[in-house]
Amino acid sequence: MTTLTQQTLSHLDWLEAEAIHIMREVAGQCSSPVLLFSGGKDSVCMLRIAEKAFRPGRFPFPLMHIDTGHNYPEVIAFRDKRAAELGERLIVRSLEDSMARGSIVLKHEHESRNKHQSVTLLEAIEEFGFDACIGGARRDEEKARAKERIMSFRDEFGQWDPKNQRPELWNLYNARSHKGENIRSFPISNWTELDVWQYIQREQLELPSIYFAHTRPVVRKGDLLMPVTDLTPAKPGDTVEDVMVRFRTVGDVSCTAPVESDADTVDKILAETATTTITERGATRMDDQTSEASMEQRKKEGYF
Amino acid sequence: MSALEHLPGIDNGLLRFLTCGSVDDGKSTLIGRLLFDSKTILADTLNAMEKTSAKRGMTAVDLSLLTDGLQAEREQGITIDVAYRYFSTGTRKYIIADAPGHEQYTRNMVTAASTANLAIILIDARKGMLNQTRRHSTLAHLLGIPHLLVAINKMDLVDYDQATYENIKAEYLKFAHKMGLKDVRFIPLSALSGDMVVDRGERMPWYEGPTLINILETAPAAHTERPEAFRFPVQYVCRPQDSANPALHDYRGFMGRVESGEIAVGDAVTVLPNGLTSRVKAIEIGGQKIERAIHEQSVTLLLDDEIDTSRGDMIVKSAEAPEAVKQIDANVCWMAEAPMSPARTYLIRHTSREVKAKIAKIDYRLDINTMEHESVDTLAMNDIARLTLKLAQPIFADPYRSNRATGAFIIIDESTNNTVGAGMIV
């Protein structure tokens, strides 16, 4: 083997170039795509990639958020502000509307709404006739996702069939679908949590405040810190503590827990991320801990 | 290896590599070792693996649990699909494509190999070269992986014996010579105990070459070291026509990725298929100007002249235009469960261009164990064959050997939209 002679891209430049290429393939191959934007850190990176892919033009797709109604208010405010700054159209569809229509029935009032997002998402896909949804999921998040394609086909029920996925070779992506079917596209599939934070640092991207260390009342449940909120009040007998925490992932209030941390800047978070001993979803997502295959099950049903 | 604390540190790019072999060769153990020593396996994952291993009555942690991601795979204890794994050393990021070893999964290995720039071919030191070794090497070669690393593993089970290593190496070299494999390196390993993976260990002082991680850290990240012709398939055309901004009124940006070579402002270019020539007026990323763009960079090109260009066209340097071809000879791997119907019309996606294609001739099927040519009427899943295809419109192609991006294509069945084949232009 020879030594390095040809100039190559840094790892972040390479990942960014790949993601731009994928977004442009969706725009070139699909007639009505949409970019899912939650206000979370991965989707913040997606917006920067979309700017690099399409400016000075407008994005060739609207942004959409499926709102569980149980999001942290800081994140919702950030979502609206960011969409307005970019001057792009933001569609919000809410689980509460699906519940009012009767298409979502909760087992009990406090059941996590996270998995029900699939229903509202599929309804919105039908309403707007979207043939592709671009999302910020990454293969390193969860093992069912490690085998997800970059262009992932969903049938007319929104189902993912992991044993019958389209082969994906080179950078020749096949985003074709028939009417009623749907492609889920994941431009940052090959990024890790560390890459995301390095990109946020390099691009100086703004994030919702709850990603940074702040003091918050929590209850300790085993290894998890349960945030005490209006939605998730302390139960009798719980010991409420004020703890310095930050969120590593941001989702539904009822199923996302923060981690203990005093990292209040991107640099400090990067240092923590590089030396952490717990995976991103392991520390924080109750919905993934139900069973070893819970993510795979939700994805088969149309979840992202 | 805990160089991660040095972040963000020196950035030596990103290397994509492939591991070929079966669980029996210690492939999962090797991947586990790399992830573990680079601190990529975290405590909760390890806990989950310990629990599952114990549930199955195993005494040690089964590292294959890391790579077997799907429920069906866990239930059957086999790997069905390609899995992608990530680790970083602080100087370089790695993407491992982990493909199952068994013959019936040829298509998965082809998939994994298509994006890899280095292949680790695992050999069990006790067993030496097997048919599987030859098959994996053949596929790696066919897919144009520039660097092969033959890892003779389980040295702990042969008492770290140098003669065993040398014999296997000699046998492989004979095969490599016959096949025309050029860049092949060898390393003795014990993935289980870690010798020569990250640390040298003390049991193989006779081996003076670099460790596995050293080889990975210094291997070229680029697919090729040769200068390549500039190839820029147009993915999307940006025409903002923003009435509030007259400066953008005539803006016409051609968006794409530099698939090979490089381009600078002022270079003379030709747009295919119309053959019109112009010069590069500007190169941009997200509206920001840059002076030149290199291989794999996604950019927007603006030209001096107004040339009607759309998705599927290709911008090249005028002095090095590729051939426009309407008939191609290609090595094709059939990927679908449904066999090929030679009478049908398929769709071919080549760069950002889609054209209809008919199978003019199946020249032969290749037996990848014996390299013999067989005469066949159709292709079944996992078959590899030499085909002649007739195209409805021309494509701008290079031989796969000289340009991976413009030599590769996929075959799509329009009735299902499924990707049914992968081809490499000869």
Automatic annotation (TrEMBL), chain A:
Spans annotated as Disordered: 281-304
Coiled coil (residue ranges): none
Protein EC: 2.7.7.4
A biological process term (GO) from this entry: sulfate assimilation
Origin: domain of life: Bacteria
Biased composition (Basic and acidic residues): 295-304
GO molecular function, one term: ATP binding
Enzyme class, UniProt record, top EC level: transferase
Keywords: ATP-binding, Nucleotide-binding, Nucleotidyltransferase, Transferase
Domain named Phosphoadenosine phosphosulphate reductase: residues: 33-258
Family to which this protein belongs: Belongs to the PAPS reductase family. CysD subfamily.
PANTHER family according to UniProt: SULFATE ADENYLYLTRANSFERASE SUBUNIT 2 (PTHR43196:SF1)
Protein name as annotated: Sulfate adenylyltransferase subunit 2
Source organism (scientific name): Denitromonas halophila
TrEMBL record, chain B:
Name by which UniProt lists this protein: sulfate adenylyltransferase
EC number of the protein: 2.7.7.4
A matching Pfam family: GTP-eEF1A_C
Signal sequence coordinates: none
PANTHER family hit by this protein: TRANSLATION FACTOR
Top EC group: transferase
One of the GO biological process terms: sulfur compound metabolic process
Origin: domain of life: Bacteria
